[in-house]
């Protein structure tokens, strides 16, 4: 049985004052039936992890370098995130793939580094609007999965997040049938590669304009094990009903 995961990605938002949102979240959901995760900007991870210690809320990073150490100005290693208190890290988010030209191979190397540092790698995949309109969605997702998911992936160390790029921060959401089609496809691809038991343990998150108003219907979709939420994770008052919907799913 896969444990559901409500994950929030603050992206480049939030200063120390925003940490009060974590306290509010813990207060509303002291013992959720799903896992709760917030990925704040890197400078806040240590403080955030100290604040949530002993609670049901976990803290993650938004990216890591593939190497353990070295001359990589501005980058952060997976081990550094873990030492700061992170338990998860997002890799291959479309904003990283686009802003930093990250390839599937680089995303795969980052996921391997995360797993080696005992972090759960949340590997993002997703098609652009042009790719969807061109009927290439499953082909694109299949190639991203093949290139970005490392051989050692298991349900314990890897989560896959499906985020259609055109749905991120736009208020546009695929139909439930479209979400189901991609999530079922991802499950099938993982099953073909890793076998049913191993693939069946990997959680699949949907991301892209998840809000309190649409969370429940998305969580009822086949093979949706939770969400990776951007904008609506910044405020506890928005993220909390999403957690509640997942708890109830
Ligand atoms: O990582 C989160 C996603 O990019 C979704 O962002 P959004 O919920 O603001 O659309």
TrEMBL record:
Pfam families: TIM. Pathway: Carbohydrate degradation; glycolysis; D-glyceraldehyde 3-phosphate from glycerone phosphate: step 1/1; Carbohydrate metabolism; erythritol degradation; Carbohydrate biosynthesis; gluconeogenesis. One of its GO terms (cellular component) is cytosol. Its EC number is 5.3.1.1. The keyword Cytoplasm applies. Substrate binds at residues 9-11, 169, 209, 230-231. Involved in the gluconeogenesis. Catalyzes stereospecifically the conversion of dihydroxyacetone phosphate (DHAP) to D-glyceraldehyde-3-phosphate (G3P). Belongs to the triosephosphate isomerase family. This is Triosephosphate isomerase.
């Amino acid at each position: 049985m896969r444990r559901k995961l409500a994950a929030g990605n603050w992206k480049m938002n939030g200063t120390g004052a925003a940490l009060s949102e974590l306290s509010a979240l813990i207060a509303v959901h002291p013992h959720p039936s799903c896992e709760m995760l917030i990925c704040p900007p890197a400078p806040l991870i240590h403080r955030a992890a100290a604040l949530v210690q002993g609670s049901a809320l976990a803290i993650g990073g938004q990216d890591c370098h593939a190497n353990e150490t070295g001359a990589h100005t501005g980058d952060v290693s997976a081990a550094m995130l873990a030492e700061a208190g992170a338990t998860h890290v997002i890799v291959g988010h479309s904003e990283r793939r686009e802003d930093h030209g990250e390839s599937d191979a680089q995303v795969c190397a980052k996921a391997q580094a995360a797993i080696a540092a005992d972090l759960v790698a949340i590997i993002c995949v997703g098609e652009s609007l042009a790719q969807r309109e061109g009927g290439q969605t499953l082909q694109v997702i299949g190639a991203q999965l093949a290139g970005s998911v490392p051989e050692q992936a298991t349900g314990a160390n890897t989560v896959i997040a499906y985020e259609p790029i055109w749905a991120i921060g736009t208020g546009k959401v695929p139909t439930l049938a479209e979400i189901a089609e991609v999530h079922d496809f991802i499950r099938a691809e993982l099953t073909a590669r890793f076998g049913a038991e191993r693939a069946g343990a990997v959680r699949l998150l949907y991301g892209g304009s998840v809000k309190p108003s649409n969370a429940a219907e998305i969580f009822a979709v086949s093979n949706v094990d939770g969400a990776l939420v951007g904008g609506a994770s910044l405020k506890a008052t928005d993220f909390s009903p999403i957690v509640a919907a997942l708890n109830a799913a």
